[in-house]
Amino acid sequence: MLMAESLNSISRGLGLGLGLGKLNFGSRNGVPLSSSFRLGKRGYKWKASLNLITNPDAFQVGPFIGSYGFFNVTSYSGFESGVDYEYLSEDIGKLKTQDVGEGGVNIRLYEGRITQGSLKGTSVLFKVYPGQRTGGAEADMMAANELSTHTYLQSSSKELCQNLLMLLGGFETNTGEQWLAFRYDGKYSAADYAKIVSDKLTKNKIAESPSAWNPFEQGQIFKRRRYFVIKMLQGISSGLAYMHEHDRLHQSLGPASVVLNTISEKEAAYMVARLRDLSFSVDISYSSLEKGPGTLSEGLWRRAIAAGAFNPIEKRNFGIADDIYEAGLLFAYLAFVPFCETGVMDSLSLQRLLENTFQLDIQAVREYCLADDRLLEAVKFLDLGDGAGWELLQVKRSLTFACYCHALSIRRVLPAAGQIIQFRDPNLSFASVLERGAMLNPDYRKRPVATAVQSHRFVSGVLL
Fold this sequence. Notes:
Elements: E1 10-12, E2 59-68, E3 71-76, E4 98-102, E5 107-114, E6 123-129, H1 132-155, E7 167-172, E8 178-183, E9 188-189, H2 190-207, H3 210-213, H4 215-245, E10 248-249, E11 258-260, E12 273-275, E13 282-283, H5 286-291, H6 298-306, H7 312-336, H8 347-357, H9 362-370, H10 376-382, H11 384-393, H12 401-408, E14 412-413, E15 421-422, H13 430-436, H14 450-455, H15 457-460
Parallel strand pairs: 1-3
Antiparallel strand pairs: 2-5, 3-4, 5-6, 6-8, 7-8, 9-11, 10-13, 11-12, 14-15
Helix pairs in contact: 4-7, 6-7
């Protein structure tokens, strides 16, 4: 069951009450869905057609699964580009970069199924946004934005991305609630998985089960876990790359934003990770950027300007890098929490450790973790391939030349005088390659794109 505590997706810089969104479901089953709405003070019209089921009679609502809210970050100072940070004793343990408040929208989840048409019998997951009476204009904007984003992504390519949750339809009730129906591809999120396997580690140790003291069995457990987490990372980076290639940011990426079709590590080969929670997605097409910010993206572009991104190209790059940073925090979460016992590490503690205690100095984070036996399995995981996991989060210049060669995808090495090496991109320097791997680099210009993360040796699985 999804709980509010497990949802770690953060909507940063959400402006409230500045626009109105309205889902307008007016067609019958099998007839294209039309939706139009306005966001922000600037009029923004969107109209799309897709064969979505919009007849309420075509659905059967099942049991209630749970509900969750979201965090609203009203200010975010971030890290300045090109600044070398020192550890100050008064800064240790402080979260001084953002002001976090509770959002006003509570979203409910229900199981269900389709009862009519060609998809009859298909299981669905209902995501229910409250109407304006209880959720205000904010709820309508979020529902409209999620609808438009899914509709666009599902109609913009010949082949659907398997790493995004699929929208099948929806309807509006008489009270104004917006019910979006997604294909039911699993009830567990990455946050649920991490909690469950972490609890198992704790129970095994307390119960002194055979696996707790058998080194071989313990090794097999963590070997399967590494493979499972790598598969998750592959799905997350693939889904994010698809969104960015189609001019959309996620902007709400966290452990609860990833749904899994299975959490059995023995079924890792069949596991598919899918991104969901696109209610804060942002259109980064140049035509959209030229129109100015929408209500849900005002905070993002304020932070972009503060970081020195002024024109549409710079803002687009900042937005993509912002998603990559959130993905880096998610990757770090999946590298630590599933490999630690309950209570040893959580998302907030990990973010505080990375951002505030060590100011994104990943090498210092590794040395700190090495001194804590409870974190050793996480360190071993990130140490794969001469520290490939740490390299993905933030590359250090002490990396070997072999890492450099791998990152550049060498075509051939000639053992002639001078060791002439041919690269696919001869213009890249050693330093620039190292910087490209840093998902958590304080300078947004030095973070990799999603496709580069997707092909990174740690994510690709070649190290397993």
